[in-house]
């Protein structure tokens, strides 16, 4: 099968056929691999020693395939691991696009192509009890949770780390978990600890989803893809003719086929909990079937009296009163109802990604304008202007530089200093 390798100035090209076994290429170096960029000399990208155990977390996507390629080509103790976190038949009523078995088959094929062993682990129970059920519970109570953040915390870097600790217990070699996330974990030479940073390629930055991953494991994790752009990764995959080179990027939660159908999906699991639809003046205009059935900014579905100046116009859902189980609607042009520059955080949910960080350090840094935050992934970060605390309610008000749309209780606010993640908490 393997025919001929032609080496060009920078890239590798294969004249015909596919690479059957990567071991045949081990002696050829590729200058694109392990090319790391750090914000300054204080931080560096750590790499394993040659005898270390390296586990590549493989989803069957192109990013984790290229990650595996880089390490398989340069290290000897490399293996792939695939997590099965849900099974399609568990999800009633939804037109599921889960492809667990075919993804696993592709991971096996790619590991075969790279000549590394791989295994499949089943973390369905953990996903169900620690991510899926809490997500339903949050929606049921009117919050807008982010299950991807929970999945990283409890499964991809929770159960997985527990599994690897057991697997390598008693072995003298250090082990590493390497993933294909668009984020960076860099070693801070001053504190001898690793920190999480945004990816260079902002269009794909996934650091927001990693805001709750356990900070004590960062020294065992590598995210090389955060140093590259997606086109660079696709180029590498193409040049090596990786089996996954043309695979499209995955889109959100696999068990829901279309984002638009997410409400129908939730209705399958959450019993109705009718409540009133009200305007800010307290007037009742209709009923909703559950707070989860509405998103802030969506059309209210109420035909308001167009002859009445006070109520004419288009009305949208602007807020949820969780205690009263009410949906609040506001006229579309009521900017103050939809755009806010103060975000209220529940401090009891706050998690410092940097163990020795605290609020007074953050406050000192506010004046230089480097403290910024995001309330959703891929959002242009907002500069934090001020933070005030209400210690009796265990809340903090984070004031940002501009009014932004659609702040919802249950979302996570992630706090950064420049590109480095400091911590995160849940909006209340
Ligand atoms: N089922 C899985 N098994 C093992 N690792 C996974 C799995 N799903 C995701 N990962 C890891 O998490 C990273 C980011 O996940 P994400 O869902 O964004 O990836 P993807 O878009 O499906 O695939 P890829 O990032 O590999 O192109 C993956 O690159 C991979 O390292």
From TrEMBL:
SUPFAM superfamilies associated with the record: Adenine nucleotide alpha hydrolases-like (SSF52402)
EC number: 2.8.1.14
Pfam annotation, one family: tRNA_Me_trans
Span of domain tRNA-specific 2-thiouridylase MnmA-like C-terminal: 356-427
Domain (tRNA-specific 2-thiouridylase MnmA-like central) ranges: 263-331
GO biological process: tRNA wobble position uridine thiolation
Example of a GO MF term: tRNA binding
Leading EC class: transferase
Catalytic activity: 5-taurinomethyluridine(34) in tRNA + S-sulfanyl-L-cysteinyl-[protein] + AH2 + ATP = 5-taurinomethyl-2-thiouridine(34) in tRNA + L-cysteinyl-[protein] + A + AMP + diphosphate + H(+)
Keyword Disulfide bond: yes
Entry annotated with the keyword tRNA-binding: yes
InterPro entries: MnmA-like, MnmA-like_C, MnmA-like_central, MnmA-like_central_sf, Rossmann-like_a/b/a_fold
GO cellular-component term (any): mitochondrion
Keywords annotated in UniProt: ATP-binding, Disulfide bond, Nucleotide-binding, RNA-binding, Transferase, tRNA processing, tRNA-binding
Protein role: Catalyzes the 2-thiolation of uridine at the wobble position (U34) of mitochondrial tRNA(Lys), tRNA(Glu) and tRNA(Gln). Required for the formation of 5-taurinomethyl-2-thiouridine (tm5s2U) of mitochondrial tRNA(Lys), tRNA(Glu), and tRNA(Gln) at the wobble position. ATP is required to activate the C2 atom of the wobble base.
Family, as annotated: Belongs to the MnmA/TRMU family.
Protein name stated in the entry: tRNA-5-taurinomethyluridine 2-sulfurtransferase
Organism: Pichia californica
